[in-house]
Amino acid sequence: MGKYEHIQQAAYEANMQLPSLGLVIFTFGNVSAVDRSKEVFAIKPSGVPYAELTPAKMVVVDFDANVVEGKLRPSSDTKTHAVLYKHWQSVGGIAHTHSMYATAWAQAQRDIPIFGTTHADHNTMDIPCAQPMDDKMIVGDYEYQTGFQIMNCLNDRGLSFEEIEMVLVGNHAPFTWGKTAEKAVYNSGVLEAIAQMAFLTEQINPEAPRLKNALIKKHYDRKHGPGSYYGQ
């Protein structure tokens, strides 16, 4: 096995989950998998249809987004991934989609309210939406600045990337992350489900109240708390 095959395989498998979960169409979206010991990550090549992907086509880049191995051009979002990996040491995988409902909330520039226990099973707070990027950042190094747009959103709200593993980028789309590329994709799927449920909730009852704190705590703690009892 080559020295990067393990992250190329992980990135390939994670990327192939995106269309199978209905989170992307055409060539939208990308997932990356990192090797912290080598300070590199593997990411989907830009504009290549999912049906044509192979592990060997995953492009390996360093934390400054320089290509280390691969003949194809990496995803146009590579610099965003690189910034997040450089600053968030415990992240092992990052996913970016334009899934329909999560992207609609991002385009509406709205946080996704925590309406129900499905949301609370994964987060104790609204899903934050980062403010649209200012003009100077847009005309500069756009994808690089998107990484800071995400980090600034969490910092401004006093949130940790370890306590919430998903964010909406205003007018753009969602990014998710986790300890592995597989977990990042899982979080993308969860985010899309939460976004759709929240949309439908507001259609049924525009005055629907936020989930009460006792239920938020109960549902989050039973999966993630010190006395968690969900699963085997």
Number of helices: 8
Helix and strand pattern? HEEEEHEHHEHHEEHH
The helix fraction, in percent, is 40-55%
CATH topology: L-fuculose-1-phosphate Aldolase
Task: Detail the poorly predicted runs.
Answer: none
The main β sheet shows up as: 8 strands, mixed
Level-2 CATH architecture: 3-Layer(aba) Sandwich
Task: Identify the CATH class.
Answer: Alpha Beta
Q: What distance lies between the first and last C-alpha atoms, to the nearest angstrom?
A: 34 Å
Q: In what order do the strands lie side by side in the largest sheet?
A: 4-3-2-1-5-8-7-6
Task: Determine the CATH superfamily.
Answer: Class II aldolase/adducin N-terminal domain
Number of discrete domains:
1
Based on DSSP secondary structure assignment, what is the total number of beta strands?
8
**What shape does the CA trace take?**
globular
Class by SSE composition? alpha+beta
> How confident is the prediction overall: mean pLDDT?
97
What portion of the residues fall into strands of 2 or more residues?
5-15%
Task: Provide the gyration radius in Å.
Answer: 18 Å
Structure in words:
Helix content is 41%, strand content 14%. It has 232 residues and is α+β, with helices and mostly antiparallel strands. The protein has a single domain (5-224), classed as L-fuculose-1-phosphate Aldolase (3-Layer(aba) Sandwich). Strands 4-3-2-1-5-8-7-6 form an eight-stranded mixed beta sheet, sandwiched between helices. Helix 1 runs parallel beside helix 7 (181-204), helix 2 (78-87) packs across helix 6 (142-156) and helix 3 (100-107) crosses helix 7 (181-204). The radius of gyration is 18 Å and the shape is globular.
